[in-house]
Structure formats: C-alpha cells, structure tokens
Request: fold
Amino acid sequence: MPEICRFYGIIIRMFFREHAPPHFHAEYGGKEALISIDTLAVISGGLPPRTLGLVVEWASLHKDELRRNWDMALNHEQPLQIRPLE
Reply:
C-alpha cells in the first residue's frame, strides 16, 4: 500500500484495487481509520481525537489531490505524494 504522506507521526496511505467509497487510510500509534474523501467522515476504525482532527484538517486542504490519487490507484498507477500538514 503506497504511502502518500507522513506528518506528526501520522501515515497516510492508499491501496491499489480499493473498494468504494473513495477513501484513504490514516495510521497513528498502532491505530488505523479509513476516511472518506468526500465527507471526511470515518468509515471504519478509529484514531485518537487530536490525531483525527489533524487528519481531517490535512485532508480538507488536499481533497482534489486525494481524489486524483484515488483515481490513479484504481488504475494501478502509483499515487503521488501530497504535502504534509505544517
């Protein structure tokens, strides 16, 4: 699963051959959540509240890039790196 971003110990990844709805995986401290690209809601799993807040903030700034990466991953193309939250 390609890593597309890393910030504050949070790892953001996308799988190839993923299932709908469009989403990404966020990992932190041994926990993982699947986050919807469209709504930024947690689809499954969970993260600590502060971590989830940082992930949602980051994703809201990069929705277009996340959607583009989703399309690339579905086509078995390597998703592009996205700038971390600063």
Summary: Strands lie at 3-7, 10-13, 23-28, 31-36, 42-45. The longest strand covers residues 23-28. Residues 3-74 form one domain. The chain has a mean pLDDT of 94.
